[in-house]
Each structure stands twice: as structure tokens, then as C-alpha cells.
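Let us practice reading a record.
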Amino acid sequence: MNEEKYEPDERGKYTDRYGNKLSLHQMCCTAPMWTQRKILALEEKLKCLDELNEISHSINTQDNRMTDQPIFIVQKKIKLNCMEGYNEDGHWWIKDGEEETNELRCKRLDLLLENDWREYGNYEKVCYQEHWEFVTACFTEQGCKDFIAIEGHNLGETRIYADGSYRNLEFRKVRDFLKGIEK
């Protein structure tokens, strides 16, 4: 296929091979495929620059929680099994490898345990400690909130933690670059 190339004339106007002036719409619709791809790529870059400008504005105006150049971190609460008497935060009951979720049954098993009842059937008491586990990091607190809005249903209990970036030169350089983008 022989694609036409449109060149501007001496006044900077684009014309077809017959000398007819082309509007921007005609140029985009009839332009060669490589030109259309370039236009789409430029539109994507402009959109990306707008998003980077928003991030820059957030970095410059957000509460840094008294932390120098913070990394905002999304964390989720997890429960790790532990031995009874080792600073456990609670316990749950397990039957045949599955956690018991029936609240009434768990209360009954707790009462049996309090009264030194030795027979629990197939149930086993398992103690746990609660810990906060890293999920993702963002440059802004708003980035963390946006992530939780999208992914929070898969995470359970979450929190946003501001951690320091002391001696993390790579992160600090990128963050300083983003801070300087704002118009």
C-alpha cells in the first residue's frame, strides 16, 4: 500500500496531493498509520504528564506526618500462630484444619475451656499474634487511599503507615524530581 505523506506548504498549511487544504480532522483520519500512532503516543504522554503533575501537587501539599521524605505504606493485619503464653493477642478454634467461624460455637468452646472441660471433640485451640504486613508503597498518602479503594476488599483490615526514607538515595531522587514537576 502506498501511503500519502502530507507536508506543510510555505505558509505551514497542510494540503493533499491536489493542493486542497486539510483540516486537523481530515489530516488525522487520512494520515498514514505511523502518524496516527505518533498522535496517540503524544496524547498518552500528555495524559501521563497531567498525572505526574497531580502526584507532584500531592507531594508538595500533603501532611508528611513529621517525617522527612516519607514513603507511604499500605499494611494489612495478619494473624500468625504462636504458642499459648507467648504474648498471644487471641485465639481461634480449628476443626479438621479449618477455622471455626460460627461465633456461638466458639463461645461455647471458650466456656468449656474456662470450666476445665477436657473434651472438645475435633476442635483444637490455636493462639495467634497480630502483625502488620507490607502490601505496597506509594509516594503520597492519596496514592495509598486510592490503592485501598481498589484492592481493600482483598486485604481485610488495613492501615496507612508513613515510613522514613533515610539514606534511601534512589527513592529521594525520584521523590525530589516529582516534587519539582508541579506547574
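A brief commentary: The mean pLDDT is 85.
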